[in-house]
Design brief:
This protein is about 30% helix and about 25% strand. The protein is α/β, with parallel strands linked by helices. Strands 13-14-15-16-17-18-19-20 form an eight-stranded parallel beta barrel, surrounded by seven helices. It has a four-stranded mixed β-sheet with strand order 7-4-10-9, sandwiched between helices. α3 runs parallel beside α4 and α4 packs across α5.
Length: about 375
């Protein structure tokens, strides 16, 4: 390996400094990193089930402030696929599971002349969308209405991905988001509630509508799907499996009198979450054994919404020990008893009234208690 001494852009002196977990050559004058492996680089194409492509806004040269695909240089000890998935994770917070090659493109570079860029479709991913590393923003745009793209090679990869019609595009729900705040609609405007809660970091928005016109419910569910997807939160529809499937929700929450779990599982796609309401250890064990992804247990405390007698913290603790899926406490939960509920083993809490007055503040408080390491 040749140890370069001067920057190829400004001619400044290069010096080795720790950066990104490695020793990098950094220009003392312009602060650019002089990568010792300038080719190839990798770019990731993610297209969701609404035919929207993921773009990031560049926070570092070249083309600061412009939109492009997530991507960057492949390290010397990485495969193209590994480098693509690492850059995706660093710039967006999303974890890809595999890649489909889109070929290569030559891309002009001020520093290196020309770079070989490898394109990959990432057909399935999970996680919370959060810009990072060299990205100041990250969001999905309709493929038919994209902003100006910084690099011609990235535009080409997007067109190749669309032309291939790669099957099974779309994201899979991330079960880690089941921890913390489950915000149930039911009081006030569900869309505004979801916007405030998602901005504050709610992992789950559960659309709960017991009555009303089904057509209007579907419209609201689709708007909630857009809000939650843009913020990387999960959308769960309460009771109505058909609406959950039609709006592209991440899952459905079923009660003891709803369609049976085994029948629902036959109708839903892989990765689709199914939560089950339970009020006893026997129901909880049966639901977990039947394949539920999480359990709602309650009412834990007395509440005017539920007529049943509260199950109490001891039953919550018993169920949490007995099953290996997340247990969501519901019923009478408030900011004052969050710590008790967490110590009893619950992974999350679901509330209607608790989030109504101050969605953002209560979501942050719940997540402080149940997701302290996040």
């Amino acid at each position: 390996m040749i140890d370069r001494q001067f920057c190829g852009v400004c001619g400044g002196k290069l010096e080795r400094r720790p950066l990104e977990g490695r020793e990098r050559l950094i220009c003392l004058r312009c602060q650019r990193v002089s990568y010792e492996n300038p080719v190839p680089a990798a770019a990731a194409v993610l297209i969701d089930d609404q035919q929207r492509v993921l773009l990031v806004r560049r926070a570092a040269p070249p083309q600061v402030g412009e939109w492009c695909l997530p991507g960057g240089f492949i390290e010397r000890d990485e495969s193209g696929e590994a480098g693509c998935l690492r850059e995706l994770r660093e710039e967006t917070g999303l974890c890809g599971e595999a890649t489909i090659p889109l070929g290569s493109e030559l891309s002009p570079s001020l520093q290196y002349g020309r770079l070989v860029l490898l394109g990959y479709v990432v057909p399935r991913w999970q996680g919370r969308l959060v810009p990072g590393d060299d990205a100041s923003d990250a969001r999905f745009f309709p493929v038919t209405d994209l902003p100006s793209i910084a690099f011609a090679s990235h535009r080409e990869f997007i067109e190749r991905a669309r032309a291939r019609g790669v099957p099974d595009l779309g994201c899979r729900a991330d079960p880690a988001l089941l921890r913390g705040a489950h915000v149930l609609t039911g009081i006030g405007d569900p869309l505004e509630l979801a916007r405030q809660a998602c901005r504050a970091g709610a992992g789950v928005i559960q659309y709960r509508e017991k009555d009303g016109a089904r057509g209007r419910m579907l419209e609201v569910a689709r708007e909630l799907r857009t809000i939650t997807r843009d913020r990387g939160s999960l959308l769960i529809v309460n009771d109505w499996l058909d609406i959950a499937l039609l709006c592209g929700a991440d899952g459905v929450h079923l009660g003891q009198s709803d369609i049976p779990l085994t029948e629902a599982r036959r109708l839903v796609p892989p990765g689709f979450l199914i939560g089950i309401s339970t009020s006893s250890p026997a129901q909880a064990r049966a639901a977990a054994a039947g394949g539920a992804d999480y359990l709602g247990l309650g009412p834990v405390f007395a509440t005017p919404i539920k007529e049943e007698a509260p199950v109490g913290l001891e039953v919550l603790a018993e169920v949490s020990r007995a099953v290996d899926v997340p247990v969501v406490a519901i019923g009478g939960v408030t900011a004052d008893n969050l710590e008790q509920v967490r110590r009893a083993g619950a992974a999350a809490v679901a509330m209607v009234r608790g989030f109504a007055d101050d969605p953002a503040g209560v979501v942050r408080r719940v997540n402080e208690v149940f997701r302290p390491a996040d």
